[in-house]
Amino acid sequence: MKHFLCYSLLLVCLNTFSQSDTTAASNTSTTNTKPVIMPGDSILINLNDTSKPKKLFYEFMSVEFSPGFILPTGNFASGDFTSPLSGYAKEGFSIGGNVYIKVVDLVNVMVSYSRQMNTFDEKSFESNSLKGTKNYTLIPHSNWVHNFILIGGSGNIALDEENFLTPRILFGLALSKSPSYETAPTGTTNIIGTPISVDSHREVKFAFRVGVGLKKNINNMLYMTINPDYYYTSLKTNINSRYFPSNPPSYQIISNISLSVGVGYRIH
Hints:
Oligomer: single chain
Number of helices: 2
Structural class: mainly beta
Mean pLDDT: 80
Shape: elongated
Order of helices and strands: HEEEEEEHEEEEEEEEE
Low-confidence stretches: 1-7, 20-47
Helix content: 10-25%
Distance between the termini: 89 Å
């Protein structure tokens, strides 16, 4: 009987120790999954965290499409026939694009193309060019057209995280074309005279563009711009030359203020 009690007590003790070891092992396993504090760092690092780091974007080029409105300035907008430099140009429209290549964060190399069309003010030109000529009328066939191809520098000055000022200055060439027109006799009886056609003059001359724009980021890939700019070029042949035979003008100034709205795409 005593032997039986001794054996029973021994079994109870063994069972108790066995349960204690199991509990301790379980606690140790749980402890190993807790965050670990790295030496010298106050940030808790979860060893089970498998999240991926955020992707960094680096913009090295952007392409922009920019239609707009143009307004002639100075002598180019004048309709005064007494001035040999008057251009008889009115407002018009433009279409073009820009390519920006990043040099550093604040500076880009900028390549620009713009096609501009100024409406020809044929009414003012007719009233002056045909003054004193009876039974003639002026028939316009084309308007002022300019193609600017320019290269230069553009800034990228941050106003906040989404808005930037973009000053720029560019130089290059412009292919310009003056209006073509025809003066013809009017009426159906006793017509005296023959029609006179004046063709367009085309020429490639030095040109430049200067302005300050505003760029607003839409997301990592797209942005919008507002671009006020001043464009300048010239023509060796003047539209008024035939009306000043004794002292013909030697050139024609072409100058426009352009206001365009652009949409751009970044290349990372």
